[in-house]
């Protein structure tokens, strides 16, 4: 998952609204979002190589999403899979703050990441910032740097997202918004260790290169009564098929 914009307790109807793009090498095997066979209380997409996820829900309302922190020069081949971080939260009974503190202590075991975990509260942690952030009401943007780092794609996504959620929007509207393939001006490109052509291509909200790019877009709402609507649109890149799947359920809160 490489671009997320969300509203937390910042909308009259919804407690949580999210629009996101997952960027990946097209050759990496992936299962589209569904209820998992081995953990049928979890709804999410799945990385079939390491069996983790970039974003998923538990029926009890726990939610987690992870993005990579882009630091090309410091990748550790032996690192643990970052896709385990959301799964371990969803299967635990820890509070978001407690789990994030534990992840913060173990951060050196992973390549760079940002993790968002939601239950009663919303928490962010990154092993590049090395601190736990409990988030208040507001609109946030996250890509492959720290939370709300003003990369052009993050700034553009937050602006467009803010405009959309002020309307009588649908999940389809959020997904359409995430298909923006405008690239940044050269003087606004971040410097993350990539060559110019790659940095330019990856500066778009929706990335399109021959071997890597946006594989799917996701839109989620949770209303104040605990109703979840979840939509994912897959794109025909690599061996993937184009298609849209939708799910809705009522959170089964723990007794």
Describe the overall structure.
The protein has 255 residues and is an alpha+beta fold. It is 17% helix and 35% strand. The chain contains five helices and 13 strands. The protein has helices at 84-90, 96-105, 152-164, 171-177, 196-201, and strands at 3-8, 14-25, 30-35, 42-47, 55-58, 63-68, 113-118, 122-126, 131-135, 138-142, 212-223, 227-234, 243-250. A seven-stranded antiparallel β-sheet has the order 3-4-5-6-7-8-9. Strands 10-1-2-11-12-13 form a six-stranded antiparallel β-sheet. The longest helix is centred in the middle third of the chain and has 13 residues, at 152-164. The radius of gyration is 17 Å and the shape is globular. The two termini are 32 Å apart. The mean pLDDT is 96.
Short structural description:
By secondary structure, the protein is α+β, with helices and mostly antiparallel strands. The strands form 2 sheets. The chain has a 7-stranded antiparallel beta sheet with strand order 3-4-5-6-7-8-9. It is 17% helix and 35% strand.
Structural class: alpha+beta
H/E order of the elements?
EEEEEEHHEEEEHHHEEE
How would the global form be characterised?
globular
Rg, rounded, reads 17 Å
- N- to C-terminal separation? 32 Å
List the keywords.
single chain, 255 residues, alpha+beta, seven-stranded antiparallel β-sheet, six-stranded antiparallel β-sheet, 35% strand, globular
């Amino acid at each position: 998952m490489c671009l997320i914009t969300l509203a937390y307790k910042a909308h009259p109807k919804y407690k949580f609204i999210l629009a996101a793009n997952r960027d990946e090498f097209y050759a990496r095997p992936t299962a589209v979002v569904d209820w998992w066979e081995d953990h049928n209380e979890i709804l999410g997409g799945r990385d079939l190589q390491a069996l983790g996820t970039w974003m998923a829900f538990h029926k009890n309302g726990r939610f987690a999403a992870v993005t990579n922190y882009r630091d090309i020069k410091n990748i550790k081949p032996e690192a643990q899979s970052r896709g385990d971080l959301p799964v371990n939260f969803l299967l635990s009974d820890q509070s978001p703050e407690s789990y994030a503190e534990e992840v913060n202590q173990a951060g050196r075991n992973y390549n760079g990441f940002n993790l968002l975990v939601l239950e009663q509260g919303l928490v962010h942690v990154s092993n590049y910032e090395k601190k736990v952030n409990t988030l208040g009401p507001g609109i946030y943007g996250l890509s492959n740097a720290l939370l709300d780092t003003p990369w052009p794609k993050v700034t553009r996504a937050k602006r467009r997202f803010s405009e959309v959620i002020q309307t009588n929007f649908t999940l389809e509207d959020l997904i359409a918004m995430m298909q923006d393939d405008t690239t940044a001006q050269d003087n606004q490109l971040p410097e993350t260790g990539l060559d110019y052509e790659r940095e330019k291509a990856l500066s778009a909200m929706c990335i399109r290169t021959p071997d890597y790019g946006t594989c799917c877009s996701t839109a989620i709402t949770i209303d104040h009564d605990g109703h979840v609507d979840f939509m994912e649109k897959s794109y025909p890149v690599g061996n993937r098929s184009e298609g849209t799947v939708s799910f809705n359920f009522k959170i089964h809160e723990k007794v």
